[in-house]
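QUALITY CONTROL LOG
STEP: pairwise intake check
CHECKER ROLE: data steward
CRITERIA: each record must contain a sequence immediately followed by its structure tokens, with no blank fields

ENTRY 1 OF 2
RESULT FIELD BELOW
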Amino acid sequence: MSDALKREAAARAVAEITSGMKVGLGTGSTARHFVELLGDRVAQGLDIVGVPTSEATAKQARECGIPLSDLDALERLDVTVDGADEIDPALNLIKGGGGALLREKIVAAASDAMIVIADSSKIVEALGRFPLPIEVNRFGLGATRHAIARAMRHHHALGELQLRTTESGEAFFTDGGHLILDAFFGRISQPEALSTELLDIPGVVQHGLFLKMCRKAYVATPNGVETLLESN
């Protein structure tokens, strides 16, 4: 998928931002286009404030001249624009491939609407082809890992559970200082039940299932950008 099409999808989302809005700023390669284009509009006089979902996004937003705040000061946002690793027909998502899932979910949940920008490779019939990121506390990792593996067996996972590492082979740490376990399901037939089961595990901080949160998606395809809407 060409970068130009991803940028066009991001431009569709930027066009929905108007002065006075409080905007959640997503993380990842496609969201970077949104932040850059939003910065261009801020330079032209658009009066908004952004809340970044990662330290990397915060750095980019500052470089683009976007005024920033946080949820301690704002409490509610008008919209969050972010990417996704998978999108199913109901606009349920898997997110967290970039390791920012906890902050992304906090910001999205504090928003009146969530818009996703992605390319057509992220569209799936059922979630689970992409490994599900699960953010966990470092304390008690072995017990947490065992409990997650049990939940995976209960949900007929086809793959393994792996600790995410960096390119140098060291454990990957999130901005919040947590670890990520990537769970390879293959297909998640009951995402709501899985969500509940994972969050009932004490060592699980959050997971990458974003259920009933996205209202609209701009998807870059070889034939242009398609708009997907939540079905009520």
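ENTRY 2 OF 2
RESULT FIELD BELOW
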Amino acid sequence: MEKVANLPRSSSKRSLVDKVCETLRQQIKDGQYSTGDRLPSEAGLTAEFSVSRTVVREAIATLRADGLVEPKQGAGVFVLQPSESGSLPFRKIDPERVSSMIDFLELRTAVETEAAGLAAQRRSPSQEEAIIQAHRKILKLASQGLFTADADFELHLAIAEATNNPRFGDFLQLTGPDVIPRRGLTPTTANPDMQAYLEILNHEHELIVTAIINGDETSAREAMRSHLKGSQSRYRKLLRQSESQ
């Protein structure tokens, strides 16, 4: 099996998740894994691709959403019969098309506002720690001038899982990391507009995380709603600037 390091070069926008997905998808297409075959374990894929467990989980979630694999609890992840119906509606996201991202931001606002409130009520100590760690990861990457969109998705997923209602996590896993708007933008610390954008996002994330950790259901909902509604207008502006450069 090819390691990520051996994959073809791609633009800086593409993440390790995308690369792992691309390789596994091609292996399934080429018949290396046939219908009914079990993929290597999470630990096996982590070692084989030299990536984190989070990357592997998100890659499997993407393949699942595309109808290529099916995880079976306690048994593993199995390859499904190829479907001719095309991508599921939640996977039809074009990060560079404003209307596509706005549609999903509106949907996310409805779902994740409630998720934030429930997370403030129901999170366990381990889930609280996962939220804190995800937030710290974003801040660390941002301070190094690195791409933060995948870490951003991890934070939102950690919040969804802290609802202790698996359907919230399923929703985000189904849509996948492409719902993070700036995946369609070029990350660069040389762009002062991008820098200002990331600083705003970091502040908004701080408000969401603080409210959840404090168990403040009302503030958590309001912080998440404000964050996602603000993303809609900021995305329009930032994408236009990126296209004009």
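INTAKE CHECK: passed for both entries
DESCRIPTIVE NOTE, ENTRY 2: Confidence is low (pLDDT under 50) at residues 1-14, 186-190.
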